[in-house]
Design a protein that fits this description.
single chain, 359 residues, alpha+beta, 8-stranded mixed beta sheet, 3-stranded antiparallel beta sheet
Amino acid sequence: MDLRPHIEKFRRRFAEVEAALSDSKTFDNPQRAQELSREYARLKELVAAGAAYAKTVTDLDENRALLKAEPPDSEMGRMAKDEVAHLEAAEKKLSLELQRGLLPPSPTESRNTIIEIRAGAGGQESALFSADLYRMYCRYAEARGWKVETMDSNPSDLGGFKEIIFSVTGTDVFKRLKYESGVHRVQRVPATEAQGRIHTSTVTVAVLPEAEEVDVEIKPDEIEINVCRASGKGGQGVNTTDSAVQIQHKPSGLIVRCADERSQQKNKAKALKVLRSRLLERKMAEENAKYAAQRKDQVGTGERSEKIRTYNFPQNRVTDHRVDLTLYNLARFIEGDLDPLLDPLMAHDLAERLKALNG
């Protein structure tokens, strides 16, 4: 694909958005200003990638010419060969980044994210693995400079979680973590297993883009709010005040509970945030169902019932079933080194979306 016309298009649009943001009248409409700011950040990255791509292509042509002119066993020939390999990898990466920019941007990709982890089959072992996944995502978020905030949790007796809900805020959070939605299967010898037998357990992960008030309207008469005393760990202040908040959304039947904060108002705000995000997820699922045939070719459906990944501890193996990719570095992966799987998932998804766009 000749990317030069597209790079020029990115440059022109970037200049237009930059001019709009320099006009004070733009900020009379806060929502429009926010949309332009997001577009500006996206285009700024694409323009920079375009400049880097153009330079890489020029350098690659020069080194390929040098490789042809020099004897392959000479020092210059070996240096040119190494440089060509390096530049070809860089060109491929930048090309994918620019092609991604051709796709219509999803309004949710730049959103902050709410993640819900729930123990599935496997009892205490499943709850322990829920805690492992929570720690894994926290490590990954820390490495990327994102912020994690717990919203609600239901600890198990052995230190795991029957359920934990938390928010992740930062740049491109949902864009990278949306592929984590689904069933995660773990195969290992549980700490509670006396005879050393390998057990299989499951944990369900739901990744929700944080909804804004303009996405989902919740009318006061549609919700029922109850407050109660928080239970479990959390200290004297939490356990002796009616700070826990439960909200029921009558039209959908959804129930959200939040008890992480000592303040009833803070818990209410967090619970409403989770409720909006769950309602937005439902709305998106209904819209996506209209394009079910196209989605079969994409990376998973994001359904909570879909088994997406297996973690096999005895073999130090992690397998993602959507792209049929197995890595033998589970120890590093569970410590938060997720990119070796997330990058191929994003690349495959991009390729399929481009195929649908061009086909």
